[in-house]
Design a protein that fits this description.
The chain is an alpha+beta fold and 906 residues long. The protein is built from 22 helices and 45 strands.
Length: 906
């Protein structure tokens, strides 16, 4: 048994090799999010597409700003139709966007949107990279983006690194770097891409990368997207072309992937069969092409030799240093032809022999090239292609033979009942803990008509981990046979947790700190436990790799699996992570601490709170006891604050276990259609004390939309807030509420809002106050005519959080009751002033505030109020959904005034 050490401090060489590995079709089919392979990537459909890849050495990189910016149809056409190796480079993870599916915002939303994009990438058929810069919210201009991202160099360095590692022939920029790109981040992506195109080839640019072992790389052609059909385009692609291996067109298949980016509302787009054209402009080229003369091209790779023997031509005079290369490449090309000729139903395993023979040729070729006297740059370029082809041959052979390697953690002994129709599964360890020992079983399946002979099954572990083989069954495998090996794995006590390698201290930072430099650019860090198996057929050897998983029963979906990860023995979370207190608060505040056990077997610990000086927690500590892993308990503390002044304080929860303190916890970020990852937070509660006056006896109802935390913050302040459920919205007594608040995007995500809007207007006419927050789908909102008088929602917004705000009606009671509002109440806002303001409105609406981004006209549609019957109707696009949960004092005072409008008897 061999062990592969995955993590060392040899940052550059391992980062280079790991990056090459991610460019294989295996990694494309099963992304780092570990979603299950698509049906189109298995069996004969997968093999057909892999044979396309084996015929070409074409490499393409596509640059964008955010998840969902990508030209998915083009990516699918190039990666799946043309067989190119394709990399999608996305500047940031979309942390600053809205969330249509839940309450995750900021960095946790970034993890979710990473998982969504990785799932979309499976459909596109591409590998994924990111840079260190953060989505800080909507930006209208380039200057703000460069200011937040500390200039060009941070993002540019990461783009250059990606080019030097991936070494594409062609780069396609999604954006042009001009006003038509819209979002400031989009424009920056368009500006930086040509800079990266040139800097990657310049040995004077980012020389530290060269010291790490990366070599300069000159991309041959640069294109820009976002070109209109009536403009001077170079290339037109029909992404509506039908692919029988996919069962639909490339554009249709890409939209299936885009539909998994649900947090952005991208789930509803579909295309009918038929042509779907996209247009591209050649910006720079180092090869003579038709596009260089203003004529149309047929492919991004016009003028570039992408055949296997063409790799020898790239070496120029250096080809003489590897006289064996051209003949080996031609032989390799012949093996691809033989495999394609043999590929025919009903026996898809016939291509396996030439594919395995090609794999053995590559094994020898990689060694000989590595030992040759080629220059480092030539060797780097050739090695990228040879290793990529090696993994493609390997994957194609496994598809032809139906070879599968499943690696599953063996469950602890106590059993749980499986749902009817599902196999009996034992209770499963979902998270490994440093210092523990567990067993796993690797099973190799042969589903072909041929007999293969297993040679080795081995686990691949991080440095410091150990594994011992327990049981082995490596007999020859006939059709539908399996071989297996069981291992005992010993985790070191200092094993690293499986967590994001990127972090920031607060949401105002716009560049991530990188904790693991070797992972820079990766979508997620590698899973700790991998395995591989080798087998022989007809004297040739194949290999397959897999990730260790745990299997469990989900109450709704039945049997599920997710990759094994490493985490703390106890996860400690303070709920909520931010609390808002009124400075006048005298009652103790209840702090809830959730503790999750990941240790197999009984656990005894002590839970305590660390509070600011002058504060007191009751009780001082509480015992924590668990019988087995997976158990979860919540503990309540009463915290008595000392004298409060407006400002921030911190409460910290600590669980003492086995002589060590544990003071952080994680959220499991997942969805049934996505992979799974973990978002860690310190076990702290930031307390923002706010000087705010509350109206007496105000009863508030909150109708949740896409998800926000405003209601819980109002409750923390001491207001009487109650959730209004669907049944009460439909038929309950709404008049018992003085004010009803609609959560963000309520009309976007809830059909019952459309159906019961008349009830809400009747509630207002009867004397209630209704506060409607923003909706993103402005076309649907306007078509619904939900407001009592005509008003038109728009995409107008004020993206600069420091933008000045003008009070249009300074004598109005909304600025005086119950809190006096002054200019300072608009200080300290985060990310933005507001979004989706009204652009037109009936004269019966009164605008109360006006604001605008620098150099733009004033927008007065962010806060409108109208009398309707006996009540008050208010619509607001100001970003209270960000400000109130963040504890911004002035925004809280203003929001309290807004919802108190009907309570002011003066």
């Amino acid at each position: 048994m061999s062990l592969l050490v995955r993590r060392t401090h040899l940052v550059c060489s391992l980062a280079f090799i790991a990056s090459l590995g991610l460019l294989s079709f295996v990694a494309i089919r099963k992304s780092p999010a570990e979603s299950r392979p698509l049906a189109q990537d298995t069996g004969t459909a997968g093999l057909e597409q892999m044979l396309r890849k084996l015929r070409t050495t074409a490499r393409l990189m596509h640059t964008t700003a955010h998840p969902d910016d990508e030209d998915g149809g083009m990516l699918a056409l190039e990666a799946r139709g043309a067989g190119a190796s394709v990399l999608l480079l996305t500047l940031n993870r979309g942390e600053g966007g809205q969330n249509k599916t839940g309450s995750e915002l900021f960095d946790e939303l970034g993890v979710l949107r990473t998982l969504e994009l990785l799932t979309a990438d499976q459909y596109y058929g591409v590998a994924q990279r990111f840079t260190r810069v953060v989505d800080f919210g909507f930006s209208k201009d380039v200057a703000e983006s460069f200011q937040k991202w500390q200039g060009h160099d941070i993002a540019l360095a990461d783009m250059v690194r990606a080019i030097r590692v991936f070494r594409p022939d062609v780069v396609v920029a999604r954006f042009q770097g001009a006003w038509r790109d819209g979002h400031g981040n989009h424009q920056v992506a368009g500006i930086l891409t040509p800079e990266a195109f040139r800097a990657a080839a310049d040995p004077q640019s980012f020389p530290e990368q060269l010291k790490e072992g990366l070599a300069p790389w000159q991309v041959k052609k640069l294109y820009t997207d976002n070109v209109r059909p009536n403009e001077d385009y170079t290339l037109r692609l029909d992404t509506g072309a039908y692919d029988p291996a996919l069962g639909m067109s490339y554009a249709q298949f890409a939209l299936e992937g885009l539909g998994h980016q649900l947090s952005q509302g991208s789930g509803g787009y579909r295309l009918p069969p038929g042509h779907s054209f996209s247009y591209y402009k050649l910006v720079e080229s180092l090869v003579p092409t038709k596009g260089s003369k203003g004529e149309h091209e047929q492919s991004f790779f016009d003028g570039i030799d992408t055949t296997l023997p063409g790799l020898a031509d790239r070496l120029g005079e250096e080809e003489g240093k590897v006289p064996f290369l051209r003949a080996a490449l031609r032989e390799l090309e012949g093996k691809v032809d033989d495999a394609a000729a043999a590929f025919a139903p009903p026996d898809p395993s016939r291509p396996a022999a030439p594919l395995l023979a090609g794999l053995n040729i590559l094994n020898d070729l990689i060694t000989r090239v590595g030992n040759s006297s080629l220059s480092p740059a030539a060797k780097a370029d050739l090695s990228v292609h040879l290793r990529s082809k090696h993994q493609q041959f390997e994957t194609a052979a496994n598809l032809a033979l139906g070879i599968v390697l499943e690696v599953a953690v063996d469950a602890p002994s106590s059993e749980v009942n499986a749902p009817a129709g599902f196999p009996q599964l034992e209770r499963t360890l979902l998270m490994a803990v440093p210092g523990e020992t567990f067993t796993l079983t690797a099973r190799l399946y042969n589903r072909s008509r041929q007999t293969v002979t297993p040679k080795e099954i081995a686990v691949d572990l991080p440095a410091g981990w150990r594994a011992e083989a327990l049981k082995q069954d490596l007999k020859p495998l006939g059709p539908d046979d399996e071989a297996s090996e069981q291992f005992q794995v010993i985790i070191p006590t200092d094993a690293a947790y499986t967590r994001p390698y990127w972090r920031r201290h607060d949401t105002q930072e716009a560049v991530y700190t990188i904790d693991e430099p070797q992972d820079l650019g990766m979508p997620l860090p590698p899973r700790p436990v991998q395995a591989h198996a080798s087998y022989s057929l007809g004297g040739a050897t194949g290999e397959i790799h897999s990730t260790a998983e745990v299997k469990y029963i989900d109450p709704l979906y039945g049997q599920e699996e997710r990759p094994l990860v490493v985490g703390p023995p106890l996860s400690v979370e303070v709920k909520p992570s931010l609390r808002v207190m009124a400075t006048s608060q005298e009652k103790p505040a209840e702090v809830a601490v959730a503790v999750r056990n990941n240790v197999t077997g009984p656990v005894s610990a002590k839970l305590r709170l660390e509070v600011p000086a002058g504060w007191r927690a009751v009780p001082d500590a509480q015992p924590v006891s668990f019988a087995r892993d997976g158990e979860y308990s919540s503990f309540k503390f009463q915290v008595l604050p000392g004298s409060l002044r407006e400002g921030s304080y911190e409460i910290r929860a600590v669980a003492d276990y086995n002589g060590k303190p544990y003071a952080e916890g994680y959220d499991v970020v997942t969805r049934h259609d996505l992979g799974t990852f973990y978002y860690y937070q310190p076990a702290t509660q930031r307390v923002n004390a706010v000087q705010v006056k509350l109206p007496a006896k105000l009863k508030v109802g909150y109708i949740m939309g896409a998800g926000d935390s405003i209601a819980s913050v109002l409750q923390q302040l001491g207001m009487d807030v109650e959730a209004v459920g669907p049944a009460e919205l439909e038929g309950g007594n709404l008049s018992r509420f003085d004010t009803i608040i609609l959560g963000i995007r309520a009309y976007d995500v809830r059909r019952d809002m459309h159906e019961n809007n008349r009830r809400l207007l009747d509630y207002v006419a009867g004397g209630g106050t209704l506060v409607v927050q923003y909706n993103q789908d402005t076309a649907a909102f306007n078509a619904g005519h939900y407001t009592p008088y005509p008003a038109t929602a728009s995409t107008a917004r004020v993206s600069v959080e420091e933008a000045p705000v003008e009070v249009l009606a300074p004598q109005d009671s909304v600025f005086h009751y119950p809190n006096e509002i002054s200019a300072r109440d608009f200080d300290g806002w985060i990310q933005e002033r507001g979004l989706y303001f009204m652009s037109q409105w009936d004269k019966r609406f009164e605008p109360l505030l006006s604001s605008h981004d620098p150099g733009e006209p004033a927008l007065a549609g962010g806060l409108l109020r109208a009398r309707f019957g006996k009540g008050i109707y208010i619509c607001t696009g100001y970003a209270f959904f960000r400000q109130v949960p963040a504890g911004v004092p002035g925004a809280i005072r203003l929001f309290v005034n807004i919802i108190s409008s009907g309570n002011n008897k003066k």
